[in-house]
Amino acid sequence: MVSAQLLALILALLLIIINLLTKYRKKHQRLPPGSLGIPIIGQSLGLLQAMRANTGERWIKRRIKKYGPISKLSLFGQPTVFLTGPAANKFIFSSDLLTPQQPQSLARIIGGQNMMELVGADHKRIRGAVSYFLKPEILRKYVGKIDEEIRQHLRTNWVAHNRVKVSPSMKRLTFNVICSTIFGIEQGTMREVLVKEFNNMLAGMWAVPINLPFTHFHNSLKASRKVRKLLTELIEKKRSALQKGECSSHEDLITYLLSLGADKGQALTDNEILDNVVLLMIAGHDTTSIVLTFIVRQLANDPITYAEVLNEQEEIAKSKASGEALTWDDLLKMKYTWRVAQEILRTIPPLFGGFRRVIKDVEFGGYLIPKGWQVFWTTSTTHMDESIFREPENFNPARFENQSGIPPYCFIAFGAGPRICPGYEFAKTETLVGVHYLVTRFKWRLCSKDDTFVRDPMPSPKHGLPAQIELKTFL
């Protein structure tokens, strides 16, 4: 006969199992609608294919129509909840229950110690250091250097040429500026090798993280190792120069990060410096080059906007002596030009979307988002919402004349809240200087009737945006 104790034990185990199954069922029922799809792959390939065909916004709209503004799916190997709308943006960018979460592919390529992956005191420490170096008071000192780097690029790659591909030219320009200004890497062999491997690295950042020889992800990891090796050597050279007193702690961002907290025994590790240098190289390169490329495209197709930008920039040019560099005060006068740039960022945001990770079970909109899941947001859902921006398909820089009239958490090209992009002012400075010399020194017309673009994952004109150019006055 079965003893009473054994029966009691079996009964207790059954009750525990029933309780766990009930909790699981209730938890599962509270999850948002949608499907996680095929394990690991999920909906990643469908989203990436739509982005590359420039139908990503339509892919998102179909999803919202089918499931509503909150739904579950699987992206880049992780269970995910997709959220849309101003309230969702506020939750995503402000909640303490969410931390930055990049696709596994991106995190493995950049490194796990970059500020987008860190939380708490570590995030605050590194973000504070980077933000300090990129704030307006510091950037004022570098306007002249940015000015000279941009003029040098245009002298070399635009003057004496009657045709250029704008997109690759702007990518090289912004890479040169960030190398020189932020990292102190002057023109030469190292820059040439870096730019080649850097472009290879970018190709697989948004990819299914399967490391096989034929995949974009594999090639990006390979390029990342080469980039990191070069930057590690650079960091060692700068550390040696600092120790010998051959350079100052504020010479560039790397020397500043190397000096930070050294006197208090709180110095950043080499991996923290390296990962954040790679992150800033990517962020500083992509955003500004895309904005400049699509400003050139817009001005070629929009004579009214072109005339207003040209008038504003020529007024500034008239106040400068021949060869005199722009100053911070000159940039403050470029109000209309910056509104044009903001409207480009609204209609063609460089970043399609982003991710956060849930650190504990949280509810939003009546649904449960379990601990460990990632949250996915996109820029277009508010940028192109006609209830927020009237006639959103129309290009209208006047939208940004009164910034307070734009509801919070709706224009999110640089993010929002406490984690807004620390490089915002740097991108703005580089964009305004670039536009000044483009419109005051050159005329152009587009050579291809097809000036559409794809996302892979950043927006890029299909043919590189070829343009016929004419020099108006020497740089």
TrEMBL record:
Annotated InterPro entries: Cyt_P450, Cyt_P450_CS, Cyt_P450_E_grp-I, Cyt_P450_sf
UniProt binding sites for heme: 421
GO biological process, one term: sterol metabolic process
Requisite cofactors: heme
Family: Belongs to the cytochrome P450 family.
A Pfam family the protein falls into: p450
Protein name (database record): Cytochrome P450
UniProt entry tagged with the keyword Metal-binding: yes
Gene Ontology MF term list: heme binding; iron ion binding; monooxygenase activity; oxidoreductase activity, acting on paired donors, with incorporation or reduction of molecular oxygen
CDD domains per the UniProt record, alphabetical: CYP90-like
This protein's UniProt keywords: Heme, Iron, Membrane, Metal-binding, Monooxygenase, Oxidoreductase, Transmembrane, Transmembrane helix
Source organism: Dioscorea zingiberensis
Residues annotated as transmembrane: 6-22
